[in-house]
Amino acid sequence: MSISSSLFSGISGLSTNGNAMSVIGDNIANVNTVAFKSSRTTFQDVLSQSVATASGTSQIGRGTTLSDVSTLFQQGSFESTANATDLAIGGDGFFIVSPVGSDTDYYTRAGQFRFDKDGNFVNPAGYVVNGWQLDNAGNDVGTIQDIVLSTFTSPPEPTAEITTITNLDTSDTSHADSLFNTWDATAAGPIADTSYGYQTAVKIYDSLGNSHDITILYDKLNAASEYNDGSVDLDNSWEYIVTSNPSEDLRADFSGLAEQGILMRGTLTYLSSTGDLTDFSAFTYNGGGNPALPVQWTPATFSTDGYPRCTANFVTGVDQDISVKFGLRSADVTWVGSTSVFDITDGAGADVLPSFIGKEPQAMISTQYASSSTTIYQSQDGYGTGFLENVSVDTDGIMVGHYSNGQILNLYRVGLARFNDSQALSKEGGNLYICTRASGDPITGHPGENGLGRIAPNSLEQSNVDIAAEFVKMIITQRGFQANSRVITTTDAMLQELINLKR
């Protein structure tokens, strides 16, 4: 008789349902584990035994066994957090992490990341997240690597251009025959408030990140002006000087002179019918001798985009070229007319103020209206040294740093990996997986590309365990275990009856 074989069938049922209960217990235990993926058990029957019957050969089952314990990678819900470096993946993919100093890669869906004391972007276990370093344009630099901030400062950028858009009061009158000659750097105050019509100032930065105030002084021309070449429309023309603090002007030729601090001088001409800036001249020191002499001030060079520029020296040995934008640019970057201030003031009457052809007004342009002189807009493109204040991550995985100098710089792009067979990954504990021969090699890429999910910043993926479903499975498993135990006790009773035949 094959009564005893039913014992082993019952034992297989107990063992298999016991393992299934272990999986259910593990799922329920991890219901609050970040990014936990629940497991599922499937059973299969054991090879059947052939027996002889009246109708021929038949088969009797010999119990059950575990067919597979598979991981369910369904998307978990997101929990919003206040930590900008908490990341969740919406869709397919895994974060790539590795121990510090190791080339072993692990894969995880849990995005509880932070920066440690060494600047490593790590998970709670101290494993460093992998990604690509970015250049200023947001392009990848090199291959995928550990995300490590080697510096928490933003280097300074010297100012290369100043934009100052003003409205000058058309009813204003001249306050001085020459702003240039009125300026006296050797005096306690280089120029009196009554010697000009209007001024505007902008803060700029040198190559070391030091700030300097650039002040532009405006005054309407009069008949005695050094720029009066006989053809100037005095009612619609102004002179200006671009100046810095004389004590910060380190140009050797200007040291100790009244002209120290003057970077550029020239005129602005407005159209009487519209009030828009229609022409300007700009002169800078050519380095040929005494800055007090008009012949040493020649038409300024143009920047590549057609704006006049001057040269400052705020750091010893470092010349800093600065473009000055009034809202009108030169398309051909070429002056026509006088070759120096001296040519205008020599009394010959043959030379006129320098001008240029190909004038192109910009969207914002200086004006001369019948209203109070005011600064409409000003800006500059430099900045000082900045310190990292916070880090944010975009949905495409790009990590940017926000610095105290107002700069937002690209740092890294978080990398993701996917597998042809995610079910074959091996769990290593700590929400980590490693690839196996069955899973295939990882396919790495940018978030949101090539089938990879996108990043959700300030979020954590929650466990995908469905407690209701697990409780139902628990009931079924419990009843299965109970039924198999009854098979064993019933078979034992049958064997007892068999033994009792001898009595």
What structural keywords apply?
six-stranded antiparallel β-sheet; single chain; 4 helices; 503 residues; rod-shaped; mainly beta; Tick-borne Encephalitis virus Glycoprotein, domain 1; 3 domains; ten-stranded antiparallel β-sheet
Task: Produce a short descriptive summary.
With 503 residues, the protein is mainly beta. The protein has four helices and 36 strands.
Structural commentary:
The protein has 4 helices and 36 strands. The protein has helices spanning 3-29, 179-182, 341-345, 467-499; strands spanning 39-45, 49-53, 56-60, 64-71, 78-80, 87-90, 94-98, 106-108, 114-115, 121-122, 128-134, 140-146, 153-154, 161-167, 198-205, 211-220, 237-244, 262-270, 277-285, 297-299, 309-315, 318-325, 328-330, 335-336, 355-356, 359-361, 374-380, 386-393, 398-403, 408-414, 416-418, 426-429, 432-434, 443-445, 454-457, 459-461. It folds into 3 domains: 3-74 and 465-502, no CATH class; 83-154 and 387-461, no CATH class; 161-380, Flagellar hook protein FlgE (Tick-borne Encephalitis virus Glycoprotein, domain 1, Sandwich). With 503 residues, it is mostly beta strands. Helix 1 (3-29) packs antiparallel against helix 4.
Helix content bin: 10-25%
The overall pLDDT average reads: 92
First and last CA, distance: 20 Å
**What would CATH call the homologous superfamily of the largest domain?**
Flagellar hook protein FlgE
Question: Count of helices?
Answer: 4
DSSP E strands, number: 36
| CATH second-level architecture of the largest domain | Sandwich
Radius of gyration: 41 Å
CATH class of the largest domain: Mainly Beta
Strand content: 35-45%
Query: What is the CATH topology of the largest domain?
Result: Tick-borne Encephalitis virus Glycoprotein, domain 1
Number of domains: 3
Task: State the shape.
Answer: rod-shaped
Unreliable spans: none
- Class derived from helix and strand content: mainly beta
Main beta sheet: strand number and arrangement? 10 strands, antiparallel
